[in-house]
Design a protein that fits this description.
2 domains; 8-stranded antiparallel β-sheet; 20 helices; alpha+beta; Glutamine Phosphoribosylpyrophosphate, subunit 1, domain 1
């Protein structure tokens, strides 16, 4: 039970918890030693216990991810993948870890095309929609390189949560009750057994027990990646895929690998921003947008019509270039240097309209000459190591398919490829040759784990969930805090907006009536996405650092978030 887990975590924490230390918990908290911010309070408790027991930020991040695979089935199960940015305070080095899903070896460019049209059911809710999961391999690779505590210790809390169960929160209950998710999770016998009672989705307060998942986690705990990519678990995945028209094979699982890549690093005025390289589109788009913003005069207040016009124009240009130039660098020559080039960014500003919003036809990326459901968490430990991690299944509950006798919910990341040129995916993003489906290729992602530095020290650790809206959410967090001088909490809480070129709409959370009228007069077509779990323009987990003070800010757009910090008494 939850009480049993929390008691065990309290005991673990107390082993290294001294009398001169205090633990602070809440939505926004301050501490002077360590901080954990995640999408679920139980995962936050797990991460904090690992830190209190002598683990570092990577240890905590690994344990958090496994815990989230249990308590956040809509966003973070083992059947997905992710990205991690790691700051090693001892060496002052930064690392980008890519454990994105990969297309099965029998994938083909036109696998989702029927009668000349994209079959969305195949791309999103079938066994064909899943790429080879990367989560387990990636977490193990991070632990092997940076971890301090034993691997088994990091997985044990997740095993307890899966085996003994936890009480369904209002957020999870609301998600389970949605018609789309009911349809998804009803497709497999195991899905119905886990997430339903008497034919109805679990309700708030009910106990969610995942016995098969607990056993899968035990195998991973005992054998490392071999407990997932080889042996009985791999055989179960292979057999279920084979019996239901899926493509993932024993060989695909055995051949999967996560990898460290060079970080995307660039300067904006007096700060340095470190983010994820391709197959994430986040780091390069952030670089391009911030490089353009360096040459733009902005009003002092963030939400003026003038600011929104200029920033949304920059968003449009960035997303238009994303559609034709970004993909898996192992398969396509991504022109990364151009996205980092400040002169190129300055040239692009000639294409922005300062009088009214541009239409999609006004912005043609071919004329610019060039030589994704998700979760995020942030951790800083007492030694200054920082980890920013984003994981995903793509849409809520991924494909909805639970692999028989494993408890593993599978991703539907194959929809993040370009199934056909200039045809939008679930998030209405376009793509072309760079992101076409190819065997063993990783689909382009919007996940943007990011760490911001000033004078060589971290000041912001952030990232977001929200599909295509992740990148602009991160952009606005940094702008709010550094450019507009908002406080840590206000920087996260402030209503967001988003423009991705196509569709030709400015998505906004909440604006005043006067501002809405101003924007409409500038030619904007507006689409409201209220600031809640289902419709927001990104949900973030952020840590700001001011004068050696850690400020953990949970996003109010989701009710299950929690920040926990450890402080030394003065």
């Amino acid at each position: 039970m939850v009480k049993k887990l929390l008691l065990s975590l309290t005991i673990i924490s107390s082993l290294h918890f001294s009398a001169d230390e205090i633990i602070v918990k809440g939505k926004t908290v301050e501490s002077n030693q360590s901080m954990v911010v995640t999408r679920h309070f139980l995962a936050t408790e797990v991460g904090n216990a690992i830190l209190a027991n002598g683990g570092n930020a990577v240890d905590a991040s690994v344990a958090i991810s496994f815990a989230l695979s249990v308590v956040l089935p809509q966003s973070s199960p083992l059947g997905g993948g992710g990205f991690m940015i790691i700051h090693d305070a001892n060496t002052n080095m930064n690392y980008a870890l890519d454990y994105r899903e990969m297309a099965p070896s029998r994938s083909s460019e036109d696998m989702f095309i029927n009668d000349g049209e994209i079959d969305r059911a195949l791309a999103l809710e079938s066994y064909l929609s899943s790429g080879v999961p990367g989560t387990v391999y990636g977490l193990y690779l991070a632990h092997q390189r940076f971890g301090l505590l034993p691997w088994k210790e990091l997985i044990e809390p997740a095993i307890v949560l899966a085996e003994d169960g936890f009480h369904v929160t209002a957020t999870l209950a609301n998600s389970l009750s949605k018609e789309t998710n009911i349809r998804k999770l009803s497709k497999t016998e195991d899905g119905r057994e886990i997430f339903f009672r008497d034919g109805k989705p679990l309700e708030e307060g009910m106990l969610l027990i995942q016995t098969d998942l607990a056993e899968t986690l035990r195998l991973i705990s005992k054998f490392g990646p071999a407990g997932f990519y080889k042996g009985i678990t791999a055989q179960k995945i292979h057999l279920d895929m084979k019996n239901n028209g899926g493509l993932i094979s024993i060989e695909d699982l055995d051949n999967y690998e996560a990898k460290f890549r060079d970080v995307v690093e660039f300067n904006y005025k007096d700060i340095t921003i470190v983010s994820m390289p391709p197959p994430s589109s986040g780091g390069l788009l952030l670089s391009l947008m911030f490089n353009m913003l360096e040459n733009v005069d902005l009003d002092k207040k963030p939400h003026t019509a003038n600011n929104i016009l200029k920033i949304s124009e920059i968003m449009q240009i960035a997303y238009s270039l994303r559609s034709i130039h970004l993909g898996d660098p192992d398969f396509y020559s991504v022109p990364s240097s151009i996205f980092l080039d400040k002169n190129f960014a300055k040239q692009l500003l000639e294409n922005i309209n300062v009088d009214k919003t541009s239409s999609a036809t006004d912005i043609d990326p071919t004329n610019f000459k060039i030589k994704e459901n998700t979760t995020h968490y942030s951790v800083v430990d007492k030694n200054g190591n920082a980890v920013s991690t984003t994981t995903t299944l793509n849409t809520a509950y991924g494909s909805g398919i639970v692999i028989k006798d494993t408890g593993i919910l599978m991703n539907n990341e194959m929809d993040d490829f370009s199934a056909a040129p200039n045809q939008p995916n679930y998030f209405e993003l376009l793509g072309n040759e760079a992101n076409k489906i190819e065997p063993m290729k990783r689909p382009l992602s919007s996940m943007t784990p990011t760490i911001v530095f000033q004078d060589g020290k971290p000041i912001i650790i952030t990232g977001a969930q929200g599909g295509s809206r992740i990148i602009t959410a991160v952009l606005q967090i940094i702008l709010n805090y550094h450019e507009f001088n908002l406080g840590a909490e206000e920087s996260v809480h402030l209503h967001r907006y988003h423009h991705q070129w196509k569709p030709e709409v400015l998505m906004y959370e909440m604006f005043s009536e006067d501002l809405i009228n101003e924007l409409e007069n500038l030619g904007f077509e507006l689409r409201q996405r209220p600031p809640n779990y289902d419709y927001s323009n990104g949900i973030t987990s952020s840590i700001m650092i001011e004068d050696n003070k850690l400020i953990g800010v949970s996003d109010p757009r989701s009710g299950d978030y929690m920040s926990i910090g450890i402080s030394k008494k003065k």
